[in-house]
């Protein structure tokens, strides 16, 4: 009887704490929480059937590069980023510095000061566009190393201030399309962004007038994007909703959007389109009907999502106060870990998954690995006879010969 009473007392105390945290008015973070129903993931059959096409990948430049999250290619040369804002290119067996868009900071745990490169692409004139989550979009002359700050995100755009700039695509006419993952929280609190309602956006930037136009609003963590071959539409990865969205730029549907592909077997990250018009979509975190994502499980329950968001905030507050007033390594690291995805890495599957779609949104095939040679990839790009694989967590680049893939 005493055990039951003690158990019920503790359960009641937990319930009271839950209600207090969930319902206490004015407690940050200031976010909205609305229920939604996640799509059911496709089975791993047909084009999604398990394969080993990315097995045997090489780890190149291991220990010489940090967090090469995004990739771009021009004239057969691969470009990527490294922690600290370094933009480098691959020349033979060397990494050659191109430019740096980093900002002065004590270490990577001060990511909001340092900056964080999330996306990059080239235009038809050979200029490289690089997206920093905290500072916006830079335009780089890769021949001279000259850097221009093309789009800043410190001022409101269409009524809201962008907190996470993510990816970029550039049309043949120089028009810049870019995504904002959130207008609520910055990237060092990206976990919170996954819990709240959709505040991601798709923009069009006119380089002549230097103005941004809002194309899509309320995208649930707008991530990678790519233009179609004819540039009549752009495809955006809606990460939290595990789907791809198409926005029409031309034609009878101009100005409207629709689902390009739903029910993805995981969260989509970057999108690349090759010369054949195939969209390559990386899926760093997979899901199945048996093993759904946590975000799927709590999607219909806004009270739980708000509770979790507030718990993360309350955990972070004391260390943030210490760091703001008495900056030091330890509180900086703890603050960084609470809000980032790093502590969740052990939960990420080791298999690599890349999905391939045609211009009509048909799933054609998938590229997978089973040998753990390369893991946790966020970007893939084709250059010469190789696929290159980038990651926000690794200290190397992956590389796989496409001859092997074709042979399979």
Characteristic terms for this protein:
408 residues, single chain, 7 helices, alpha+beta, 34% strand, four-stranded antiparallel beta sheet, Neuraminidase, 19% helix
Description:
The chain is an alpha+beta fold and 408 residues long. The chain has a single domain (26-407), classed as Neuraminidase (6 Propeller), CATH 2.120.10.30. Helices cover 19% and strands 34% of the residues. β14 and β15 form a beta hairpin. The termini are far apart.
Which oligomeric form is depicted? Answer: single chain
CATH topology label: Neuraminidase
Describe the largest sheet.
4 strands, antiparallel
What general form does the structure show? globular
Total count of strands: 26
**What is Rg?**
22 Å
Report the CATH C-level class. Mainly Beta
The percentage helix is 10-25%
State the end-to-end distance. 65 Å
SSE layout:
Blueprint: H1 2-23, E1 58-60, E2 71-74, E3 77-82, E4 86-91, E5 94-100, H2 111-114, E6 117-122, E7 127-132, E8 136-141, E9 147-152, E10 164-170, E11 176-182, H3 190-195, E12 200-206, E13 211-219, E14 222-227, E15 233-238, E16 243-248, E17 257-261, E18 266-267, E19 271-273, E20 279-282, E21 285-286, H4 294-298, H5 302-325, H6 329-339, E22 353-357, E23 363-368, E24 379-383, E25 386-390, E26 397-401, H7 402-407
Antiparallel strand pairs: 1-26, 2-3, 3-4, 4-5, 6-7, 7-8, 8-9, 10-11, 11-12, 12-13, 14-15, 15-16, 16-17, 18-21, 19-20, 20-22, 22-23, 24-25, 25-26
